Amino acid sequence: MVNIKVNGVPLQVEEGTTILDAAKKINIKIPTLCYNPDLHPWAACGICIVRMEGSPKMVRACCTPVSEGMAIVTHDPEIIKVRRTVVELILSNHPNDCLQCPRNGNCELQRLAAEFGIRQVPYQSIVKDLPIDDSNPAIVLNPEKCVRCGRCVKVCQDMQNVWAIEFLGRGINGRIASAADVPLGDSPCIKCGQCAAHCPVGAIYERDDTTKVWAALQNPNVHPVVQIAPAVRVALGEEFGLEPGTIITKKIYAALRRLGFKTVFDTNFSADLTIMEEGTELVKRLTQGGDIPLITSCCPAWVDYMEKYYTDFIPNFSTAKSPQQMMGAMIKTYWAQKAGVDPAKIFSVSVMPCTAKKWETTRNDDMRSSGYQDVDVSITTRELARMIKQAGIDILNLPDEEADSPLGPYTGAGTIFGATGGVMEAAVRTAYYLVTKKELGDVNFVAARGLKGVKEAEVDLDGKKIRIAVAHQMGNIAAVLDKIREAREAGKEPPYHFVEVMACRGGCIGGGGQPYGCTDEVRAKRISGIYHDDEKSTYRCSHQNPYIKQVYDEFLGEPNSHKAHELLHTHYVARPLYLK
Known about the structure:
Blueprint: E1 2-6, E2 9-13, H1 19-24, E3 49-52, E4 58-60, E5 71-73, H2 77-92, H3 108-115, E6 139-141, H4 151-159, E7 165-168, E8 175-178, H5 194-198, E9 204-206, H6 210-217, E10 223-228, H7 249-259, E11 263-266, H8 267-288, E12 294-295, H9 300-309, H10 323-339, E13 346-352, H11 356-360, E14 377-380, H12 381-390, H13 412-415, H14 422-436, E15 454-461, E16 464-472, H15 477-489, E17 498-502, H16 520-535, H17 546-556, H18 562-568
Parallel strand pairs: 1-5, 10-11, 10-13, 12-17, 13-14, 16-17
Antiparallel strand pairs: 1-2, 3-4, 3-5, 6-9, 7-8, 15-16
Helix pairs in contact: 8-10, 8-14
């Protein structure tokens, strides 16, 4: 511990603490723009400058560690003047079109300009005429709005290990662009959207597909159907002033009906369906032979990453589609037949925490297993929030409503898909039953939970020890896969039997399409909400869902049946890093 003073206030903090974090402990806010708690600070913007008492030298608070006896001044007229000048200089290179910007009202630069009371910029406006890159099916890059904070580069390279975005040029000609300056759609981008989630301004954002949804809702010849993902229910409330993790599932159902959707289903149901298919696949590989470990496949950004960077693991990938795509197939086959609705007239929409889901809807021909495009449009949590606000719906005061049957009711196992380790935990609950024909005494598999980058554990399945690994945040997966590859090349037994991977930190609750401002504190609250939803569920294992049993009895036959493979499974191919 070291003793310091901040604005004359004595304070004891742990050695190595930055000035920025030390000031927070006594409720002093130092303004920042490039800083983000997910990223190692690198002092790009210069807004967080402070100085030491008795010294004219200014240092950057985000990356300067405290030392014994340090006396820090965080605010005085000179410091505020310098910070204001930095913001003004950034604004002089920034387009003045806030009203048309997707981040209007939720922009960190806009907030700083308001806090410093900037009404005019005293410098010549030099805004580069750079074209918008909309070549990517999930992400739009508008380099004119870039403030060169570098967050997207650090996220893409350090957190995600994808390297699809980089700095190009120097000085005033410096800019952010996709790798090798190719269109973003031709780059190694895996569409995870973490660049957009971390961008402080409107330089990178999700492709907006709400116009397509509005058109379908207003078309009298269309039957609009919607599904909502597990992670949406614990995050959408943030857009309406609620605490992260607040569960508003039944109000979301009600809001969707008021938007005009005729049928409302829940992706948690198809998460239960995924567990039946994937769990059966795991048991078959363990008992009848097959490539081990089995690796989960419900995260499309991870699928894209694997097909580009780790193609030798294609045989290990579960062939089970994601819950989104399983639901899409079931809506236009089983439900359409049961409800007497022409599948050609169904417009199927998914609400997802993920930008990569937009790409997944057309990933390959397996996404048309119903004879039509199984999911017509995927929108993010942020897009749904905008639609609700546009429609004037007071979602927080709506009466609770239920999802429609039979593709709506879900178990706790389905809802925990939204958190890192949730797919693994749900699979273990059902795999245990499939092997032993007995129910687990305690279904809480806590070893799979938490925000540690890689989690390892053992599960006892009727006397057989099953080794598992859970990895989230794309940059953490290399250590797991390299360990498996080394064992394989050495002719040794695989270190794991089952591996779960989620591209985004925290899993889907931290997806690229979730409300802005996601930190580990926010992630922990969303995860807590997910597990609270699990704990209050009548059924907590996927195989216990009576509507899952009904679907197999009436339509699919049994897990991994021929019909299930036609509708609920997919295949993978090696993809080049660059399309050009």
